[in-house]
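Subject: Re: docking follow-up (adenosine-5'-triphosphate)

Dear J.,

Thanks for your patience while I sorted out the input files. As discussed at Tuesday's group meeting, I've set up the holo structure prediction with adenosine-5'-triphosphate included as the bound ligand rather than trying to dock it afterwards. The sequence and the ligand SMILES I used are pasted below, so you can double-check that they match what you have on your end before we go further.
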Amino acid sequence: MMSVTTGDAEPSGSAAEPYVRFEHVTKRFPANDRRGAPLTALRDVSLEIARGEVFGVIGHSGAGKSTLVRLINGLETPSEGRVHVGPHELTALPERERRGVRRDIGMIFQQFNLFQSRTVAGNVAYPLKVAGVERAERDRRVARLLDFVGLLDRAHDHPEQLSGGQKQRVGIARALATEPSLLLADEATSALDPETTGDVLALLRRVNRELGVTIVIITHELDVIRGIADRVAVLDDGELVESGSVYEVFAHPRTEAAARFVGTTLRDRPSAATLARLRRTHSGRLVTVRVRDRSGFQSALAGTFLRHEVAAEIVFGGISELQDRPVGSLTFELTGPPGAVDASLAALRADGVEPVEED
Ligand SMILES: Nc1ncnc2c1ncn2[C@@H]1O[C@H](COP(=O)(O)OP(=O)(O)OP(=O)(O)O)[C@@H](O)[C@H]1O
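The structure tokens for the complex came back this morning:
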């Protein structure tokens, strides 16, 4: 492990102190032409990001994710509301001090943004040069950083000689060079294949856990959030529609927008086509139940059906894991004496399970 210090950052999970705070932030951009209405990129967004956590922001293209990042690093100012980073309220700071806050924030990008004419070591050294760090100390830090990201043996190569994943490792080393407390990752894995994405996320996890750096990761990919984030906010058309632990938001989305995101990757209700196929081979009533993270959940289900003399056959669904907790849904074909199926469903509802009858 390297000995890079990161200010007063605490290790992941131990702190609830808000580090980044949005208070009713709205960001409008002027219309493209004189007669058009201004464009609202973010509408009344409030959120808190704790020191030491990995916070994901997910949303479709144009949802306002990059605008949110640019408000955190002070490259944009809110039209309404306030943005706090650490003890500072950004809008209240003069530009010179805002630059100081920015120095404590590292950034990585989808297209890596490396200097092609500089070597790997030269890219990592660049921010240290700008900060006036003297040569010997610079060399020491660059070597430590390249060792940390596993690229010490590529120090003298140029970016064009590297794979996408390696380029992003250089990007990460460069972003960490000035020992920031916060790392902003804007679609940092979107140009990478799934396996390389996994490697880069694992590295970011180490940055968080071993160096105590708070990470805000912006993405349109659910798997990225599942792979790394502690908490997540869902942005939809400029509005923050839901936020919470990754498990809460993805296992039990409360809004249509979050459910749309989740439904595309987590196993959920059968599609219309699947349902039509199931109907052809199953004459009983089809009922879907979301898997709950509580012990004995499935035996309780089985017990309820048994008590009501209802035969329950699983015909669709599955269970996977999210943050080490079970998540998924099961579709049953239920058959039994008159009234028994309804009675068993009423018993499930009384027990807090929400069976959904497929029509
Ligand atoms: N400087 C700007 N001037 C005018 N409109 C802007 C500006 N920056 C962003 N927008 C608009 O604000 C909205 C949100 O953009 P933003 O880039 O934040 O979304 P995003 O979620 O990051 O999308 P993507 O994933 O495609 O980058 C878009 O409609 C965009 O066109």
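A couple of observations from a first look. DSSP finds twelve helices and 14 strands in the chain. The two ends are 57 Å apart (CA to CA).

Let me know if you'd like me to rerun anything.

Best regards,
T.
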